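As a warm-up, study this chain.
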Amino acid sequence: MANLKFGPGDYVKLRLALEEIEGRVLESPDNGVILLKLNSGYNIGISKDNILGARVIRKFKEEKEKFELPLTKSLPSPKNMKFSGLESSTKRKDELPSIGMVVTGGTIASKVDAKTGGVKPVVDIGEFAKFYPEMFKIVNVKKIDEPFMLDSSQMNYEHWFKIAESVKKMLDDNEISGVIVTHGTDTLHYTAAALSFFLRNLNKPVVLTFSQRSGDRASSDANLNLHCAARVAISDLAEVVLVGHGSTNDDFCYAMRGTKVRKMHSSRRDAFKPININLIAKVWPDRVEFISQHRARNKEKVELDLNYTDKVALVKFYPGQDPSILDFYALKYKGIVIEGVGLGHVGTSGVHHNWIPKLKKHVRNGFVVCMISQTIFGKVDEYVYHVGRELRDAGVIFLDDMLSETAWIKLGWVLGHYGWKKNIKEKMLENFAGEINGRLGIE
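Now compare it with the structure written out below.
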């Protein structure tokens, strides 16, 4: 075994029996194994006994430099949002449109720790400027708020409250043109839907964005996503939207309504797609092309509506499912959204698989049952088949083309309003944030 005079963070070349390998040394939980991060981004473990020689190419140095915000290209004033590109003159950052950022964690707000191989958060404005300089050429980030740093799979409605409160404060700042929320991808579309209901009378853009790969990787999608998100944040828009790669290439992004978007792939850079509705806009680093109708920037006063109950559930129906599951939810919850098959169907025949008796009983006792479709695309319809009419007569509320995640969050929000208790169906079918596309037909 060679004399290994290097430590975590050092960039080394290791000589093995049949090859030489370069990479950054990571902290290893096993004293007999060298953990190495390769240039490809993958980590490998090498037994110290198999290392015949080692050379340190670069010693690890902690990053202690101060990050300076760059001089940037100028933009048209935020009062004139119909722009076609960048101007040629140079302006200081304080002359650019200002935005706010709410950083909640996720890959987009992370960088690789050279010692551990894991990631750690990026929350300083200067660090954002270092990793994502293109964004700072078109906007001045006036404020960054960090309500928490969390893997989005660990979030719940209390985290949505914190994000909404941070966004509301920034929207109330007259100097801020729009707000960007950086977020992990796993539950990003849930948060987008929640903010769409919590922030009423929206007057400026609220833009959620993400990355599938951290900003310090060559293949990261973060730079384009943030650049396009900044472009939308100063546009003529007043909606909650999700902005991210429109293709697997670094060429353009989509802006998608917060209540009509879903993560459709586990790892692709263009993971998010609009469902049952057109894009709001196609976005390039130098321009925004609006494609469909949208709420325009205005001077209304934003209201924060955090009336919400988490005593709601999302249940997926499968063939032969025992309807007694309704007994459990009716005992502990105020309502459920069922993902029915086809146009919104569940079992309604036989002795053991007929949902109608249970549905009638629990709906009569005040339990709210809503129906959406498992199919993602298309909508439910209670009038086409006899099954749907039976469910309608049992008191099930059919939610048109609403997405299951959006329907679940909306149900919690509607049931959270005590004064709406007598007209739940009307409120669930009221189009608060573009969650229902009334022009969608059955093909």
